[in-house]
Amino acid sequence: MTVAAFMDLALYDSECGYYARAAQRSGRAGDFFTSVDVGPIFGELLEVQVAEMAGILGAPASAATFDLVEAGAGNGRLSADILAAMRQRDPGLLDAVNVHLIDASATARAQQNAVLGPLASRLVSSRASLPDSFEGVLVANELLDAMPVHHVVQRASGLQELYVDADGGGHLRLTEGALSTPELSAYLDRLDVRLEPGWRVEIGLSAVNWIGNAAKQLRRGFLILIDYGHEARDLYSVTHSAGTLTTFAGHRSAGPESLAPAWLANPGEQDITAHVDFTSVRAAAESAGLTTIAFLDQTYFLLGLLQSIRNPQSAIRNLHTLVMPGGLGSTHKVLILGKNVGMPALLGCSFKVRVT
């Protein structure tokens, strides 16, 4: 099977998938940390941006519906932090917001009401897929990096795809074969990427398809995508010529360094992730009718929002983890997209728009 099919089963199978079997996989007791695990400050800062975007859309002053959609919401911790901050700073908006929590895991969805607690009255839908139509703001924090990717290798004879197979002893391994779909070579051709023999890279067809669907379902509003990744010119270069597929287990990662890489072992028991190709995600979004408003490091995005908090000193204790160089601040990028909203000057872009 393709690596993409293997990832889909290992991560999202309803019975044995890594994400499907638990409501929460991050944090001190989990396998990796996300910005949400730092504390409520991440959600508090995001609320500043969500509230500004709501104002641009006319909420809550108008009778228009305002949807807050979190894709890859897990048990709803990030949305709970956003809503708690909204209750303090923008109570009028809280009364108007319709929350939609999207996650593939039924186990995680079952805990969302409890995690939201007294704010669960704002939860309109909890489902595995995006609403058919919505108007407002979609937030996706570390969603795209966990989407299945195809794994390919450049040979002197041409591009080959890596497949998951089993040896005589039943141990999983990688084998090479012809491409499973011509979309893979077309993807690299669109980027004008030229791989050297021996280079192995990932191609995220799922992420590109997802952003295209999200664009169609959004009537008017914004998308805030936060993830780690690169522009294509950096991702498909000698720096990442071994690929970026890795696994996180017990807060340790291991990359694709052999034909029996660590991420291939113990399917369903560990995370599998790959860096996001933001060039292709952005291009797919624009082809589907979205406008790119900004692309910047998480550091500068959050520092721009921090300027709007009345008492920033109360937040600084945990903020350094979110903005420090070499940590979440620089490895995580923020892509802000809009539809039928023009090119507004946003608070999250007020400090500096820079990608390192």
Question: Can you walk me through this structure?
Answer:
By secondary structure, the protein is of the alpha/beta class. It has a domain at 18-147 and 204-241 and 272-349: Rossmann fold (3-Layer(aba) Sandwich). Helices cover 31% and strands 25% of the residues. The protein has 13 helices and 15 strands. The strands form three sheets. Strands 1, 2, 3, 4, 9, 13, 14 and 15 form an eight-stranded mixed beta sheet that branches. A four-stranded antiparallel beta sheet has the order 7-6-5-8. The protein is globular. The two termini are 36 Å apart.
The major beta sheet can be summarized as: 8 strands, mixed
Q: Can you tell me the overall shape?
A: globular
Oligomerization state of this entry? Answer: single chain
Assign the CATH class of the domain at 18-147 and 204-241 and 272-349.
Alpha Beta
Number of helices: 13
Low-confidence stretches: 26-30
- Rg over CA atoms, rounded to whole Å, is 20 Å
**SSE string:** HHEHHEHHEEEEEHEHEHEEEEHEHHHE
